[in-house]
Amino acid sequence: MTTPYPPENPWLRTASCWLFQRRRSLVCPDTPRLDGKVALVTGATGGIGAATARGLLARGATLVLPCRNHAKGQAFVVSLGEAPERVALVALSLDDLATAPPCAAAIGERLGDRRIDILVENAGVWPQQYATTAQGHEIAFGTNVLGHFALRRALLQAGLLADDARVVVLTGDIYALQDDCTPDYRWRGPPGGLNAYCRSKLGNLWIAGELQRRYPGLTVTCAHPGVVSSDLFGSSTGVTGWFKSQLMLDAAAGAQTSLYCATQQGLQKGGYYHNTRGQMRLRDSDPALRRERARALWETCEQLCG
Question: Tens of pLDDT along 275-298?
Fold first, then answer.
């Protein structure tokens, strides 16, 4: 179902994401089965990513899980209780472009002649203080946008992404608070971190749209998971914990939109799916639809990864 346009005011639009979401958030069906399919999920050792990985595994998929913390990754794999051949752990730091090609090579060795059928670009950071990646890019952009770009680029160059693969890019309606996304954004204090995160979520939408245009055989969708109680929002104890428990979704509920985009039939290529509004219609003036800026960002990412 395609919903009417969201509120035009970006602050009202962001606030409306909270309203009744715990009652209205979608639930992904358990079918179709994914036996024989290979799914890669970034950020799968916690939060929405872990719940997404569990959901794909339960539907029969084989998992490839890139992570930077090997011990944490191993603990998660053990918690899944599956045979090693169904879950592969590979090393990757999204904030270091140099790790993407070795990660793709390791995936290729593990998969042999199989390819990735489902790619879920889930990992993300909401920085509390200014920081940069190994290559000197602002950390939210460098991780949320550029890190995923480098991984996907390496997979494509190695022929590891199926021609008709599903690519699910997590974003958030909060992107509407910003109108640009660049690697050199400088900021200070919590408001700056919020702006950096919003800019990166806009960048995710731009790159997803450009990916769909450049690779029409893929099915690329963007997913707004809802406002989810995760590490992005700080502590889960005290007043903050109570606030999160009352207004936010848990990780399992937050993973439903990602699972929906990864598994369901009849999705619109290039579509934007919202946890309470379904497929989103966007106004022509929406910053997500600035195609020239999307093309320019793609070219910038290509240069930075090159």
Answer: 999 999 999 999 999 999 999 999
Structure tokens that stand for 246 in this block: 């009352």
- Torsion sign over Cα 231, 40, 174, 226: negative
User: Residue 87: is its pLDDT beyond 60?
Assistant: yes
Work out the angle at residue 25's Cα, subtended by the Cα atoms of residues 243 and 234, and round it to the nearest 5 degrees: 30
Per-chain mean pLDDT for the chain: 92
Task: Tell me the whole-structure pTM to 2 decimals.
Answer: 0.93
The pLDDT assigned to 254 comes to 95
Distance (Å, whole) CA 289 – CA 41: 26
Per the CB < 8 A criterion, the answer to whether 41 and 63 are in contact is yes
Letter for the amino acid at 158?
Answer: A
Q: Are 221 and 267 in contact (CB under 8 A)?
A: yes
Task: Specify burial of residue 60 (Cβ count, 10 A radius: 0-12, 13-18, 19+).
Answer: middle
Contacts of 217 (CB under 8 A, 6+ apart): 163, 164
Output the CA torsion sign for 269, 275, 278, 280. Answer: negative
SS3 at position 184: coil
For 291, phi then psi, to 5°, come to -65, -40
Stated length of the chain: 306
For strands 272-274 and 278-279, give the pairing.
antiparallel
Phi, psi angles (nearest 5°) of residue 10: -65, -35
Could you give the residue ranges of the DSSP H alpha helices within the chain? Answer: 10-16, 21-24, 47-58, 70-80, 100-111, 139-140, 148-157, 189-214, 238-247, 251-254, 256-263, 291-305
